[in-house]
Every structure is written in C-alpha cells, then in structure tokens.
Amino acid sequence: LRLGILASGGGTNLQAIIDQCLAGSVSAEVAVVLSNKPQAGALERARRAGIPVAVVEHRTHPDREAFDQAMVEVLKKSGVELVVLAGFMRILTPVFLEAFPQRIMNIHPALLPAFPGIHAQRQALDYGVRIAGCTVHFVDPGVDSGPIIIQAAVPVRDDDNETTLSRRILEQEHRIYPQAIRLFAEGRLRIEGRRVRITPPLM
Ligand code: GRF
C-alpha cells in the first residue's frame, strides 16, 4: 500500500508510521511526504529516511482549489493509494476529497466528537474532563467529523498542563495511527454510513 503523508509540523506521527513500515509491522510504504511548510520538521524526517518530499505552499496558488489540485497532482504522480494527514493544518476542499474518496485519514488529539478544531488538548483541560485521548478517522467534508476508525483514552491528571497532556496523548497517537493504517492495508476496514466496521474485530 503506497502512502502519501501530509504534514505541516514536527512529524512525530510521520516518524511513528515510517518506523512501523520499516519494521514490517505495517504492510505499506511511504511513497511521498508533502508539506505546505518548507521548514517543516516532517520533511527533514522524510529526507533522513530517504523518502521523496514535496512542498506545495498555499500562498503560491490563487485559491484553495488550485492549492488542493497541485497537491493531488503530486500525490497521484507518486501512485499514492492512501492519504494520511499527520499534523496537516489546512482544510481540504472537495477537489482533494473527490480525488481520494474514502482514502484520506486524519488524527485528532481528542476523543471526537468532543473538542474538534485547534488546541483540542487545551479545550479538554479547560473543560475539566478526567479522560482525554485521540481519534483516527476518515476525512469527510467537515472538520474532524469523518467516520471514526480507532480511539485511545488517557487519564487527565490534576497537575497536567497543555504540554504534559499533549505528550501523553501523542504517545497513544503513535500507537493507533500505524494500527489504523495496518488495518486499512489488510482490507479490514469497511465504512458503513457514519460507522467503520473492522473485520475481524480488534481484541
Ligand atoms: C498532533 O498533536 C496531532 O494530533 C495533530 O497535530 C499534532 C502533530 O504532531 N494532528 P506531529 O507533527 O505528528 O508531531
């Protein structure tokens, strides 16, 4: 399975996916890493792993649709079969979604549908929840609203701040994202309306 990873930040989720693919525990390969930020740490991680990289900057395109079309062309040229958003901080338009129907995954650092959008970890702390976590889902036209594949929960401690909670959640992100990609590569995910059926079930 050829993966196209989109990242705007440091790329620790990208690194976890690269490591699991190299270890052979996920039968997939990272075909290209694409960023909208030329200085993204994720690009450096890709280069170190010998993975092709591409930069598509949104300000060099007249509008969102043209930007998305440019990214689609890079991904199609690389033969990408599954798009993985790993800390990608742009909203995708139907131009992109229609190029990869039901083949785009995202990870969000909260137990959706709670706390969609940015600073999810801070939203959880401000709300005072006792349990936080992360969600891997298929991307649909909404923001953080697509069919959920896997979630993981972590406790929120009284002395937690955004950094300590984010770190605890990130550890789980690095576990469930490769797992979700492995399930997809094994053909074990089936989208049924809002729900994703895993066959055979996990556990
Ligand atoms: C993570 O918190 C992830 O949940 C969110 O963006 C952050 C990216 O982290 N999507 P990294 O760039 O993978 O380290």
From TrEMBL:
The record marks D144 as: Raises pKa of active site His. The lineage of its organism: Bacteria, Pseudomonadati, Thermodesulfobacteriota, Desulfuromonadia, Desulfuromonadales. It comes from Syntrophotalea carbinolica (strain DSM 2380 / NBRC 103641 / GraBd1). InterPro entries: Formyl_transf_N, Formyl_transf_N_sf, GART. GO terms for cellular component: cytoplasm. This is Phosphoribosylglycinamide formyltransferase. Belongs to the GART family. The keyword Lyase does not apply. Catalyzes the transfer of a formyl group from 10-formyltetrahydrofolate to 5-phospho-ribosyl-glycinamide (GAR), producing 5-phospho-ribosyl-N-formylglycinamide (FGAR) and tetrahydrofolate. SUPFAM superfamilies: Formyltransferase (SSF53328).
